[in-house]
Specification:
The chain has five helices and seven strands, in the order H-H-E-H-E-E-H-E-E-H-E-E. The chain is an alpha+beta fold. Strand 6 and strand 7 form a beta hairpin.
Length: 233
């Protein structure tokens, strides 16, 4: 118990420092914009420039809102609550719904490979869908030509993988990608997230008594979600 409490305290300190760092940039841009606002509000100021200026401020506000929403989601998954309400759902149907929802966001095709038409499970389908969508939107940023979803099962476990043929993750980054707020320096310029997406997936899998792993080479990067068909209460 003492070790658990100590770990929670350290985690909260880490999150607080990381949030302070992440929110500093959009907050500084907003403060600078507010200082310039009188110049853009003059009667003879250019209307288009004024609108562009306001749009930039809205983007900064949205960036902070997105960060806070991700942080709330991450924090809500911190504890393994007892007595969680489990619902029955069809994993294949959930995957197809996610593909339909996200395939319009990128020209890269999303292909589902599975030998079953239905795979009924008990769990928290909203969280499984969140984990899948996090992986798919991440793959859409880096895939060159295709994104592959594969579903396999054994007698007791489910294995869902999402792979893409984009630039590989550097080997030095692989052990750290599931840490909150961690972003590889090699892709930082193209990564518009806050570094919480994969950390959220890890907690979702822990909540389902499973795990997430990643492998990456020149051919593909593959994330694997593995969890039991029947969760122990």
């Amino acid at each position: 118990m003492a070790r658990h409490i100590s770990a929670l305290i350290e985690n909260q300190k880490h999150l607080s420092n990381a949030v302070s760092h992440e929110i500093r940039t959009p907050l500084a841009r907003l403060k600078f914009a507010l200082a310039l606002m009188p110049m853009y509000c003059q009667p003879d100021s250019d209307e288009q420039k004024r609108q562009d200026f306001l749009d930039e401020m809205q983007l900064d506000i949205k960036e902070m809102e997105d960060l806070l929403q991700e942080l709330l989601t991450y924090a809500s998954l911190e504890s393994q609550r007892e007595g969680i309400q489990l619902d029955e759902y069809d994993l294949i149907n959930l995957i197809n719904q996610s593909i339909k929802r996200l395939e319009t966001l990128s020209p890269t095709p999303i292909i589902l490979k599975t030998e079953v038409e239905k795979l009924p499970l008990f769990g928290e389908p909203a969280l499984i869908e969140r984990a899948l969508q996090n992986l798919l939107t991440n793959a859409q940023r880096f895939a060159r030509t295709e994104i592959i979803i594969e579903v396999k099962q054994t007698q007791h476990r489910v294995n869902l993988s999402v792979s893409n043929n984009g630039e590989p993750i550097p080997s030095v980054d692989l052990p750290k990608v599931f840490e909150p707020f961690y972003r590889s320096q090699s892709v930082q310029n193209g990564n518009k997230g806050h570094g919480l997406g994969l950390a959220i997936i890890k907690r979702i899998m822990q909540r389902h008594q499973g795990n997430v792993s990643v492998t990456s080479d020149e051919q593909h990067t593959r994330f694997n979600l593995i969890w039991p068909k029947k969760r122990k209460l």
